[in-house]
Amino acid sequence: MTDDPILALHGVHKSFGPVEVLSGIDIVLRSGEVLALIGENGAGKSTTMKILAGYQPATKGRILLDGQEVRFGSLHEGEAAGIVLIHQEFNLAEQLTVEQNIFLGRELRRGLLLDKKRMRDLTRQYLARLNCRVDPDTPVSQLSNSDKQMVEIAKALSRNARVLIMDEPTAVLTGSEVEVLFEQVRALRAAGTAILFTSHKLGEVANIADRVTIMRDGAVVRTDIVAAMTEDDMATAMVGRDVSALYPAKPGVLKGGSVALQVQGLTVPGHAQDIGFTLRHGEILGIAGLIGSGRTEAMEGLCGLRPATMTALKIEGQPVTIRSTADALDHGLCYMTEDRKLRGLLLDKGMRVNLTLQALARFGRILIDRKAEDAALVQAVKEFDIRAGSADVLVGNLSGGNQQKLLLAKIMQSEPRILIVDEPTRGIDIGTKQQIYTFLRALAAAGKSIVVVSSEMQEIIGMSDRVLVMRQGGIAGTLEGDHITEDAIVRHAMGVGADTDERAA
Amino acid sequence: MTSETVNPISHRRRLPSMSVLGPILALVILIVIGALMNSNFLSSGNINNVLSRSAFIGIIAVGMTFVITAGGLDLSVGSMAAFIAGLMILVMNAALPTLGVGVPIILLGMLTALLAGVLAGMLNGFLITTLGIEAFIVTLGTMGIYRSLVTWLANGGTLSLDFELRGFYRPVYFDGVLGVAWPIIVFAVVVILGEILMSRARFGRHCAATGSNEHVAHYSNVNVNRTRMLTYIMLGMLVGVATIMYVPRLGSASASTGVLWELEAIAAVIIGGTVLKGGFGRVWGTVIGVLILSLIDNILNLTDLVSPYLNGAIQGVIIVLAVILQREAKAKG
Q: Scanning every residue of chain B, which has its alpha carbon at the shortest distance from the alpha carbon of A45?
């Protein structure tokens, strides 16, 4: 580790029109050091990263590269200086192959023609360093999210990045993939690269970062070495209030609660087989499991979003058939998607249109009652604490947390009695998480039944009265009460759970 | 961001954007130019003439607005109109000996046109939604099919409505109420219904949602396939309506009937501010687009400033300009 700052911001301000999003930021990136930048959504992390990488100019303040003041005219100048930014939303051409993506814009040539052999060999080398086993000839559109992330990192490797800036690199990765990524980060650090990353997972920050810079409302509130802080300290500094009670208290299992939903033999071809479970009134049922274990597909099949078969389905004790989302909604069963940007919200529309889309029939049989819609929006903004500059703002311009709250508000317009939420807090800040958890618990307390599908272990443990663990399209185990532990969930999810926890199933 | 204040549900008052003002402004400028250049331009005769000719494309373009808003496209409407016109003439001529000249045979012809339109729209919709083939490919295919069918029906020449029948049917194009021709009245009704359907009804909202992001629409309990299907059926039916107004004008149909109507209709939709890739559409804008295209044609014919042969070139420039304006508005907005 050396102490020379490679890249630094001093007193950087950034305004969009009259709105100041950064007010006097100081950040220092040193060679051979991992810096974590944390803060709630909307704290200004993304803008800070874009200024560091030369994507956006600062309104005021100095950017120092190797001690010299620089002004990047474009992102190419940033890249030429060895600064690579990996976006949260991947910047890959979906139809091109892995190799074509890695060398996009910097194709190697031999004379006039492309030197395909060398590019392929280099691509293999980069991927091998990342323990990533994808064929360089695979089109990116066929890759999983985690493989796409690896390709992005391989792209950065190919650019000999001196400064690597990653926007929530672990948001789409599974636990073992995160480990692979971190190994690579450690290797890069050892090689002298300066690394900055953001994450909402404080455990990861404690694990990998050397120093942490915490932002709130466009300003740096604290910078310190990681060892000097607990996760609780970080969360408190981010939110500006105590968040140790992230999860609302569980009321204790309602054994006597009547059964709201009973599913038997749910099969979604290619994804899930023979899933069966019951859900009681007032209960929050967690569904855990690795990404790809068929959780999402099973729930989508249950709600009529994809083809599925069931041997029996009872809602409130009555046998019902669900073939479409309309059927599901008629029975008070509603699914909230894990992907708010691609499946949940129309990003190029306003909040009103999004809020009422799923329950449009409530706002008029043929013609839509605009006044009723506006009233519903005012109500939802208040109830869910959605923070938008104006009612006309396009939903794509809202922060992730506010989008998620709007999505929840939209789902609630259908007045579900059985609510299935898939990754309800993915990629959002801790303050908003707390609000969503509180809302879900209150909903359960009001007698509704809730299923929480999540990859976040703490969320499953903190929220669920009962947990189903899925593995390879089937239910690997059921956990209840004190048996809901990280260890037990992992064992079931990995298929090694058949020992002490079996009695809980 | 720091700009977020708590619960501000205020609607910002601001000037309408260029994408709203642009087409209106262009129309006003065209009217002023026309009036300055030819004193006849604003005569009721000329206005009636321009609007009547606009009605065919206009009625079709209203349907096209829904198709494009829902993320689709239909290239087959021009050939479809020709085919329906040919079919209508054949059916009416064939029924002449039994029904004689009178209202029933006209109604039969109209029913034929509407039915054929609905079926043709259903065929497009079925291939696009149920079989999942690109709209561009499907309608390129059906465009060729209908064009070739009408040529075949006419045996390479012209299908003509029986002379007596034509005299009886003529008023449907040439007469009207209080000096306003029937095609204009029908066009106006279609526009008003279309505008309400698009901006106030669930169907319009569903079209916009489908075109904006069909996955989101699907997850939001919008029946994406049904919505798309309905837009194609509606467009087919409106092609039928346009044909009903068109046949009495010339009383004939041939391989050259309705050539390039599809492009004019699509151009009108785009000039009016509907987004070509779907997700946002406005019927009133389409009407302005249709009027702009017709007025250019009319002005060039009435004045000798520019050769009427350059009509297509000027329309082309306007279409490209309209899309550039749309993009500017999007970048700012």
A: B1
